[in-house]
Design a protein that fits this description.
This protein is of the alpha+beta class and 330 residues long. The chain has three domains: 92 residues, no CATH class; 131 residues, Sandwich (Jelly Rolls), CATH 2.60.120.1440; 71 residues, Phage tail protein beta-alpha-beta fold, CATH 3.55.50.30. It has eight helices and 18 strands. Strands 1, 2, 3, 4, 5, 6, 7, 8, 9, 10, 11, 12 and 13 form a 13-stranded mixed beta sheet that branches. Helix 1 packs across helix 3.
């Protein structure tokens, strides 16, 4: 779990400019080992330097690499070499504007979302880092007493900055997750909500569905690291999934371990607009294992077709798997 991060509000414009300049240099064409050595020295000089560099790097990733055409043009005069003393602050300021433009929107807008196949990481005002998986939407609502996040749909990983006086609460459906400094994931698929604790301690509260004849008090479950609570009905269940598999999407992978093909197809379809379609229930019940890149539906479908001797038909918007599954003949 990450240590408590310095608040971004304590970062001076000078430190932010220096951090932005470092990021720009690292992405430049003239990167050398001496540059990396100098950067390490600058980072070690103050925790604020490391925090500013992290924010600048995230902003660069959110906004994408800045094209050369977007950089300010510096005119040259024949026979005259400009002094670098005034040029460096100008370039640093330009880097701050260009690099930070992508981050300001995400940090100030209460709604953060990703499209199909997209993933995104943002750092909230208190230093909490949120990573959104494909097709995910969250809404941020921070007050002086509580740090609130609502997961409207999809899946998100939370690396929460410690602040016992200001609880961090994630709500999803009828579930509320309270953490005081921890790492956990929340996934919401229609009426099902999964909470997986990676590190630390969380309390999950489940309220009675609206319109119930006999409302009951909220049920509370305290999770231990490695546990997952699945709330899909009136009685939540606990299990211990493979954390490596559960967090594989953060590495750009889907890990399948003896999973029904129907469920595997549903998981792969989360990451691509090209949907895999099975023609028979018999095919949906076979078991599959493997590691696949997220969004690579075509390769996944071809591997399944080869393994189970299925016919495959690739179309612009879907991949159809037909036929009865048969054991692979080497």
């Amino acid at each position: 779990m990450s240590a408590t991060r310095p608040a971004s509000a304590s970062l001076s414009p000078e430190i932010r400019a220096e951090a932005a300049a470092w990021v720009a240099r690292l992405h430049g064409s003239g990167r050398k080992s001496s540059l990396e050595t100098a950067l390490k020295t600058w980072l070690a000089a103050s925790p604020l330097h490391a925090r500013a560099f992290e924010l600048a790097t995230e902003a660069w990733e959110l906004g994408g690499a800045v094209p050369a055409a977007a950089l300010p043009r510096i005119g040259s005069v024949r026979g005259h070499r400009p002094r670098v003393g005034w040029l460096r602050p100008l370039l640093a300021s330009a880097a701050v504007i260009l690099i930070s433009s992508g981050a300001i929107f995400y940090l100030r807008d209460p709604a953060i979302s990703t499209a199909t196949g997209e993933q995104r990481s943002v750092t909230l005002e208190d230093g909490t880092r949120v990573t959104l998986n494909t097709d995910t939407q969250v809404r941020i609502h921070y007050t002086k007493a509580q740090r609130g996040v609502r997961l409207e749909a999809g899946e998100a990983f939370f690396d929460v900055a410690k602040n016992p006086q200001r609880p961090f609460v994630v709500s999803a459906g009828r579930e509320s997750v309270v953490a005081l400094g921890t790492e956990f994931m929340v996934r919401r698929d229609d009426d099902e909500v999964d909470v997986t604790l990676v590190e630390g301690r969380v309390s999950v509260s489940t309220t009675t569905a609206a319109g119930s004849a006999a409302p009951a008090p909220p049920m509370s479950h305290v999770l231990a690291p490695g546990e997952r609570l699945r709330a899909a009905g009136s009685t939540p269940t606990l299990d211990r999934p493979s954390i490596e598999a559960a967090t594989a999407w953060r590495r750009g992978e889907v890990v399948l371990d003896h999973l029904r093909l129907g469920d595997a197809v549903e998981e792969m379809n989360r990451y691509s607009p090209v949907k895999i379609v099975l023609s028979s229930a018999e095919s949906a019940d076979v078991r599959v294992s493997g590691i696949f890149r997220i969004g690579d539906s075509a390769r996944f479908a071809r591997a399944i077709a080869s393994t189970y001797q299925l016919d495959i038909q690739e179309e612009p918007k879907r991949i159809l798997l037909t036929g009865a599954p048969r054991a692979h003949q080497p």
